[in-house]
Specification:
Chain B: Residues 204-365 form the FUZ/MON1/HPS1 second Longin domain. Chain B: Pfam families: Fuz_longin_1, Fuz_longin_2, Fuz_longin_3. Chain B: Residues 522-675 form the FUZ/MON1/HPS1 third Longin domain. The complex is a heterodimer of chains A (567) and B (682). With 567 residues, chain A is an alpha+beta fold. In chain A, 37% of the residues lie in helices and 18% in strands. In chain A, α4 (100-118) packs across α6 (130-145) and α7 runs antiparallel to α16 (425-448). The relative contact order of chain A is 0.12. In chain B, β4 (79-85) and β5 form a beta hairpin. The radius of gyration of chain B is 26 Å and the shape is globular. Classes of the chains: A alpha+beta (567), B alpha+beta (682).
């Protein structure tokens, strides 16, 4: 089942290397001494030396001239994202068609992943054998490249379960498991994953992506009882590993651990872990941001939370309530109820980007829109801050935490916990036992869900990227290539770069002889749309009857049934 | 913080240009170790030391990986763009955010184009170009570099401030009656008189034009001249601007004084047709005997011999304004395209801001055509041989090598044995013939490649000697006599005396947005370009001078100007990737860009697939590398037998205007601005 995850189909990365210049200081030092890791590993050593030596040398020279590290280096056939820190030189090369911003994002992700699991890079190389660390780079790189379709070269996004085939209540159940775990004060936050895909998460997309690496690793290795991170007492189902978080990423989900908490996002943890999740939560449970809505309470009391009966949930005419502006991954009951069959991944999150507002009154749409645009600039800046430049943040202190993993077959509960959690047997057992039954139940349900046919194809192509949650909704087939899709992917790539470079750009229509593509973005999302067929044959002279200019209207209309509301 | 550098493969700096900030930056980094950082050589040393590792690395990458650096970007947004032409590496740097990667790449191509205009076919031999760009004599080097640097600076200024250099098309002054009068004057009076004068020293005026700042008032080409390419014309305008820069703040009279005398109002405007008349083909065959089809026989022409004798007499140009500039321009004749043919350029200032430019064909230009023919033959042969073709396969499909053999024999004979260069050419040629034609010799095989290369170098050297060399001994320089030049100058001055103030204002406010507001509410700005003729119109957007544009002077006007400049760059980016229609909603504005093709009768042709180019491809424009000419050629393949025209329209609208209305506006503008009668809408 997991094979699709590890498929090294189209590689977006052509080269990746880490070069340690401190090893090559003297006259007689060989360049190869400085090569910490080189991908593709089968590259002849002299070619490795050539690339590392030349790129690092030229990079250093340019950096000295400009008194600033090089961040992008282009060759005619490849473009490289570069990070320089102390004597380390990272380079990640991609084909020139991949947007530069995407290459840089990929390299940052890769370095941040390494730091997440190993802490400071310099210290790791002092403590470990280079071969060990090389295999980790390889592992992280292969994880980041796994299952990437053409669009994944452009948008780095979370793989989520196909919510269109899943009873929304299952998503709610997953969210409740996480909430219940949080009642233990040592548990910070977590996520529920199924077969390498996110079911529910409380942590930022960046962190979730990192957590998923360990999950897929433990899955492929299989539970091994002699693994130092596994706990025999839990039948090998539970494992843990030390991870390192920057203060800023920690602050995002630990309201009390940081002095500068921007929002109060989490339910206050007043009560102790008093009941297990297999009991239905009652209406009096946590009065928190997300749960204060009366509809939610009623919903919980009205029906069996874990009922897999979709008709029941769909039929309930719950009154509309505005969502909390930004609930950071907490479930929004409205969203789950409202989402029609073809809905997308966003359904299990609510960030007020319009997904859950289908069919709602206009005034409400308005309201939500204003909320989103109100947070406009902040959001854009926030995005940048979430993936801080590793070169600079390598100095920032990393805080060790523990990643706790509880696996039930394909289902994994991953929690970020205080390091002392592992030695606190009572807490551990409590969390384990309180969630075990629910996890089993959830796993059983998810397992029976057939992968199902992907959404309606329709005479059009679209891609909808949620920048806040890093999720991508599209009706493109996952296989790369596809001659029909290529013009769309090419246009999307160009437009995405343009959107990234021009903050004020809201929408664009571009047309070549073969394809007209419409792109639009708000602070929270980017949407791309191409209509098939129709006569594109025209002179290219301005003409308001030209089909290209009807794309915005068509996109608005067509994408509604995919849960994309372009307002 | 800007820099442009040309380096040889051995990391020798062949040319550099830096702005003061960059120079300071280098001196700060290097100066600490340098005891006396004064003077040019010290700075040149430090710049070459600083760049050497990059240059060497670049060459290593090409040698070993068959790939090369195209750019570097640093975290503080400094951009380095690299491009290699033959054995010369060009590096352009920006550290002040004013230029993007595409601007820097364009700048590199522009410098390359300028070297071609200044040095002609010498640029085809890296070895000779190296010597030409970096003369041994430091004084001579300083003078040449200064000239190139100031050309580059002028270009930079125009690109930043002049819409016609932004879109790389020529802007004409829209005043049809005056334009027509001037063209007639140039034709009937000026050129005719010059070409029939005995003081022209064998030169023949081919083109004459009047510039008002950067805008063209009148352009006339003599009947037997080939048309001047837009690319060349734009470079000539840069050169003229460089010689007589427009002082944007002081040379304009008060606009109000002149506005009353201006011909604004409901006149019947039209843009004058560029000369020459359509039957160019037939006229060109009627010129000097032997020109074109069989250039070799021309060397018996006494004119040529005289020119050969006078080669020695070319002297270092004194700061005498009557000394023409040698420029190398493309000439298209019935039998083909001859790039980089020698011309003399006379730039005669009429008043500050108004200049008369004369381009003459020099008497020895036929030598250049022959050299080009031979160069082409050897280059083709070399290419085929290096592709592995041998024997007759290598010589197929061109003028047979035997024909070249006969012509080259005659050419060398005509050059005369006294010349050192021709002696060396002859030596190399004998060697080539021995290898290629001797029975039992290697014949046409790979072994001939080095000999081909040597022949090319020798041909370039002969060309250099004929057209570039400034020999020391002086007598009468080869040029239109100063008296003749003065007469030309005063004739045109007399003709334009009453118009001069009007012209200076008109050039600043050629067409104004006000005239469009009624018909196109919400339209803020537009640029329309006819790429087939290389001409553009746009409402003026000058902000640097005293009389402000209609947008006023404040930050808003500056903002819109910046938007227009960015828009042009952005649409080029999409065009490079094959998108000919682009619209954006950006902030409070709505931008449109359209490129389309028409036939001669104005019928709109179907949009075909446009080529998709790589990121580091030559810049889209007409100045340095004529993208549109290639585009037209590419497109015409599917429209055989039709004259294809290519147009572009850019518009800026207020974002509140409904998209449908905006598109209607665009359509109206597109059809009205370039109607078949070419009456610009006013």
């Amino acid at each position: 089942v997991m094979t699709e995850l590890m498929q090294p189909d189209s590689r977006r990365c052509t080269y990746f290397f880490l070069y340690d210049g401190s090893k090559v200081k003297g006259e007689g030092d060989l360049t190869r001494e400085g090569i910490c890791y080189f991908y593709p590993e089968e590259t002849p050593l002299d070619e490795q030396e050539l690339l590392c030596g030349q790129l690092a040398g030229a990079g250093r020279c340019v950096s000295e001239l400009s008194s600033s590290p090089v961040c992008v280096l282009r060759l005619r056939r490849n473009k490289f994202a570069i990070r320089m820190k102390d004597d380390f030189f990272w380079a990640l090369g991609c084909p020139v068609e991949v947007p530069t911003i995407s290459v840089c994002e990929l390299l940052d992700q890769l370095i941040n992943l390494f730091r997440f699991y190993n802490g400071s890079v310099r210290r790791s190389y002092q403590l470990n054998r280079p071969e060990t660390l090389a295999s980790r780079w390889a592992q992280y790189l292969s994880h980041l490249q796994s299952g990437s379709s053409d669009l994944h070269h452009i948008f780095s996004c979370l793989r989520t379960i196909d919510a269109t085939n899943i009873d929304p209540l299952l998503l709610l159940k997953a969210a409740l498991i996480l909430q219940a775990c949080q009642r233990c004060p040592l548990v910070s936050a977590g996520c529920v994953l199924f077969r390498g895909r996110v079911v529910s998460t409380q942590i930022s997309p960046e962190l979730t992506m990192k957590v998923m690496v360990h999950e897929s690793e433990t899955y492929t290795k299989g539970p091994r009882c002699n693994d130092p991170g596994t706990f025999n007492s839990f039948g090998g189902a539970v494992s843990s590993t030390t991870v390192f978080l920057t203060r800023s990423s920690l602050a995002k989900f630990l309201p009390f651990s940081s002095h500068s908490t921007p929002h109060k996002k989490k339910p206050t943890r007043k009560t102790r872990l008093s009941r297990t999740l297999s009991n239905t939560p009652s209406t009096e449970s946590e009065p928190s941001d997300a749960f204060s809505s009366p509809s939610f309470s009623r919903r919980l009391s009205d029906s069996s939370v874990f009922s897999p009966d979709p008709s029941q949930s769909g039929a309930d005419p719950t009154p509309q309530q505005p969502d909390p502006p930004f609930s950071n991954g907490e479930p929004s009951p409205e969203a789950e109820e409202e989402v029609p069959e073809e809905s997308n991944y966003e359904s299990f999150h609510s960030n007020g980007n319009g997904v859950s507002q289908i069919g709602a009154e206009e005034s409400r749409d308005h309201n939500v829109f204003e909320e989103v645009s109100g947070g406009g600039c902040g959001n854009v800046q926030g995005r940048g801050a979430e993936s801080p430049d590793p070169a600079r943040s390598d100095d920032s202190p990393l805080i060790p935490m523990t990643l706790y993993l509880h696996r039930v077959k394909g289902l994994v509960l991953a929690l970020l916990v205080e390091p002392c959690f592992l030695s606190d047997t009572d807490s551990m057992e409590e969390v384990y036992h309180s969630s075990l039954a629910s996890l089993n139940g959830l796993e059983a349900h998810l397992r029976t869900v057939s992968p199902g046919a992907s959404g309606p194809q329709g005479p059009y192509l679209f891609a909808h990227f949620d920048c806040v949650q890093s999720t991508l909704t599209t009706n493109l087939s996952a296989r790369p290539g596809g001659a029909l899709q290529r013009p769309f992917v090419r246009a999307t790539s160009l437009l995405h770069s343009h959107f990234c470079n021009t903050e004020t750009l809201q929408e664009a229509i571009i047309r070549s002889a073969g394809a007209a593509v419409y792109g639009t973005r708000s602070v929270a999302q980017e949407t791309y749309f191409q209509q098939h067929g129709g006569s594109l044959r025209n002179s290219g002279i301005p003409n308001h009857q030209d089909s290209a200019f009807s794309l915005p209207g068509k996109a608005r209309h067509r994408l509604l049934k995919h849960g994309v509301n372009l307002i | 913080m800007k820099c442009l550098l040309i380096a040889s493969e051995s990391a020798e700096v062949l040319f550099h240009w830096t702005d003061p900030e960059f120079q300071q930056n280098v001196q700060k980094q290097y100066g600490a170790s340098q005891e006396d950082g004064q003077g040019l050589p010290a700075f040149e040393d430090s710049i070459s030391t600083l760049f050497a590792p990059i240059i060497i690395s670049c060459i290593t990458m090409v040698d070993r990986l068959r790939d090369s650096y195209t750019s570097f970007t640093t975290e503080n947004h400094h951009i380095y763009v690299l491009h290699q032409f033959d054995e010369c590496l060009y590096i352009a740097v920006n550290g002040d955010g004013e230029e993007g990667e595409c601007d820097l790449r364009r700048k590199i191509y522009v410098v390359k184009k300028m070297t071609e205009v200044l040095f002609g076919m010498v640029t085809l031999s890296s070895n000779l170009l190296r010597k030409e760009l970096r003369p041994q004599d430091t004084e001579q080097r300083a003078r040449l570099w200064k000239h190139l640097q100031s050309l580059l600076q002028t270009y930079g200024h125009l690109r930043e401030n002049d819409q016609s250099f932004l879109v790389e098309a020529v802007e004409r002054l829209i005043h049809p009656t005056l334009c027509e009068q001037c063209i007639e004057f140039l034709e009937r009076r000026l050129v005719q008189q010059l070409n029939s004068s005995g003081e022209r020293a064998g030169e023949e005026v081919m083109h004459a034009f009047i510039l008002v700042h950067t805008k063209l008032l009148a352009f006339y080409s003599s009947r037997n001249a080939s048309s001047l390419s837009t690319s060349d014309l734009l470079v000539l305008i840069i050169m003229a601007q460089n010689m007589y820069p427009s002082n944007t703040d002081s040379d304009d009279p008060n606009p109000e004084d002149v506005e009353s005398t201006s011909g604004s109002g409901p006149e019947s405007f039209y843009t004058p047709e560029p000369s020459p008349p359509p039957d160019r083909g037939s006229s060109s065959s009627g010129e000097k005997p032997g020109r074109g089809s069989t250039p070799v026989f021309e060397f018996v022409d006494p004119d040529v011999q005289m020119a050969e004798d006078s080669l020695q007499t070319l002297e270092v140009p004194p700061p005498d304004p009557s000394t023409p500039r040698r420029v190398f321009l493309e000439v298209s004749l019935k039998d083909g395209l001859y790039p980089m043919m020698p011309h003399s350029m006379y730039c005669l200032p009429l008043w500050p801001g108004i200049t008369l430019v004369l381009l003459t064909k020099i008497p020895t230009s036929a030598v250049a055509m022959s050299v080009y023919t031979f160069l082409e033959a050897f280059a083709k042969l070399e290419k085929r041989l290096s592709e592995g073709q041998e024997g007759s396969a290598a010589t197929r499909g061109q003028r047979t090598i035997h024909e070249v053999r006969g012509k080259l024999d005659k050419f060398i004979k005509a050059l005369g044995p006294t010349e050192i260069q021709s002696g060396q050419l002859q030596k190399e040629w004998i060697e080539f013939k021995n290898l290629a034609f001797t029975r039992g010799g290697p014949g046409f095989s790979r072994h001939l490649i080095p000999s081909c290369k040597k022949m090319k170098t020798q041909l370039c050297a002969v060309y250099r000697q004929c057209f570039l060399l400034e020999s020391g001994s002086s007598s009468i320089p080869q040029r239109l006599s100063p008296g003749l030049q003065e007469r030309a100058q005063s004739m045109v001055q007399e003709k334009l005396m009453d118009w001069k103030d009007f012209l200076l204002v008109k050039s600043r406010r050629n067409i104004t947005m006000v005239s469009y507001l009624e018909d196109f509410p919400g339209l803020i700005h537009f640029i329309c370009v006819d790429r087939s003729t290389g001409q553009m119109i746009a409402p003026s957007l000058n902000l640097t001078e005293r009389n402000t544009s209609e947008l006023g002077k404040g930050p808003l006007a500056q903002f819109i100007r910046r938007k227009v400049w960015t828009l042009v760059n952005t649409t080029r980016r999409y065009l490079q990737k094959g998108y000919s229609t682009v619209t954006f909603r950006d902030g409070d504005f709505y931008f449109c860009y359209f490129l389309w093709f028409e036939n001669e009768t104005g019928f709109k042709l179907e949009a075909g697939d446009l080529p998709v180019l790589s990121d580091d491809s030559a810049p889209i424009g007409m100045l340095a590398w004529d993208y549109y000419r290639k585009l037209l050629r590419y497109y015409s393949k599917s429209h055989q037998g039709e004259v294809v025209k290519c147009y572009e329209l850019l518009t800026v609208h207020l974002g509140v205007v409904p998209a449908e209305i905006i598109l209607q506006h665009c359509r109206q503008l597109a059809s009205k601005l370039w109607e078949p009668s070419r009456n610009p809408l006013l």
